[in-house]
User: Fold this.
Amino acid sequence: MDELIKILKSYHPEVDYEKESGLIDKKIFDSFDIVSIVGELMDEFDIEINAEHMVPENFNSAKAIWDLIVRLQDE
Amino acid sequence: MKTNIIEYLYESAESFPDKEAYFDETSSYSYSQILSEVEAIATKLIKKSDTVCRPILIYLEKAPRVLCTFWGVVLSRNFYVPLDTDMPDYRIGLIVENLKPQAVITDIAHFDKARSFCKNVYVYEEMIETEADRDLIEERKNSAIDTDPVYVLYTSGSTGVPKGVVVSHRSLIDYVEQFCNEIKISDDEIIANQAPFYFDASLIDIYCTLKAGATMGIVPKDYFSLPLKLLDFLESYNISTIRWVPSAMKMISTFKGFKTLKPKALRKVIFGAESMPVKCYNYWHSNYPEATFIQIYGPTEITGVCTYHYIDREYLEDEVIPIGKAFRNTEILLLDEDDKLIRRSDIVGEICVKGSCLALGYYNAGEKTEEVFVQNPLNPYYPERIYRTGDLGKYNENKELLFVSRKDFQIKHMGHRIELGEIETAAASLPGIGAVCCQFDKEKQKIVLFYESKEWDDEKVMESLKKRLVRYMLPNTLKKVEKMPLTPGGKVDRLALKGLL
Assistant:
């Protein structure tokens, strides 16, 4: 989780990732952030994120992103 | 011969009155509906003011009706200047100071905001209730000439002040005739628009549609974060053509989106405004081997596009996809350091452009205009302007032009043109910050801002920058440094900072 927060912080240091639950819904991340962030996550955590995973529920909070990573690592 | 861009609207409204012209997910306009709003808006403007060839701001959220305001302004023989409604006040202030607009057109929802930066406000909802006065319109239309400005688009400026590029009817008509003819947009096409209207990449979508009597749909911005919704949009609206920035196309290739859904009507893919990663292109090409892929190139100062290249094969990852050759009625001059013409392959020079596509210059910025719109150094005999792009290029052995790099500190990031100097100026103006330096990390495609500060941290710097810079200009990474490395001459040592990226 710390590794994930570090990546997210490098894009938007002003966000409180412990509390924020509207990263997509509130348009804090735009599409270009998303493409870059997901690219980094795939490299960093050695996972394959595909189009089906790209729904707001999976990316609205750091916790949700972390859950997705764990789920994909188990697969 | 056409002398006014509005003639395309009258032609399409006559040939295809009831055909759907422009739509988004909540509204749709036929050609005749567009024309009737355009005439209402123009009538209102003509009745209210005698002045012509003056700038009128458009402050509206992206939607088909925005085009009615553009062309209403044009029909009144004035020119439109689109503003992004998400733009921070600080930047709007800079633009208004430079432009001194005649008026602003907005809607009820944005009235107070628009009023805060321009006293003379027209409200869209009221304007379209105006009864069209054809005689008045005809009189004003007949007075127009093709060297009148049609729009001003603002781009990033190195000194921190945005530059307004003034484009004439002549240049835009040249664009429509040469470019839209070359890429063969026909009336049965449906184009999915990605680029914002304040960005010249949208010219293709808007004007090729208008000329051909085709249809254009606006893709909701959010969909570029949601590949499945994006693909669903292309599929359900039978999209045949896209002109997107490569970053937007990456949204589909990164997530291997075509595995889930492959929109069936797509047959033309046009991209430009930043370099296309070969991996992304190959993914698209392998999924659409029958489609036409065209890379285009050109800055705002020459009306958006000056070269094109039909791509007909897959590329290796270390190869560069050419930007190709000049459109008809446009000439490219590749000039070396001594302003001599380069003809041979593999010699790097500055890409310079000649032709009707040249913009009139920068608005209210004579000196800046003279720096880059200059006398053709190959012709000492009569006045002839060329535009120096500041882009370096070279020819390959097939006489195709390749983009090499920039001469200065301008970058292309996510399709947007950004002067690193503008970010530095904004950051340096913050009270808690000492020396700053902005760099572009090419490998990771990130804008990195180095700064000195005793009290401020990354969080505070980012919060404050958001109030001064448009979103696409915000640095992706902040790096606080104890002391900015300096060269012996006392300037920021950019090379030393490169090592810290």
About this structure: Chain A touches chain B at residues 9-14, 24, 27, 29-32, 34-36, 38-39, 49-56 (CB under 8 Å).
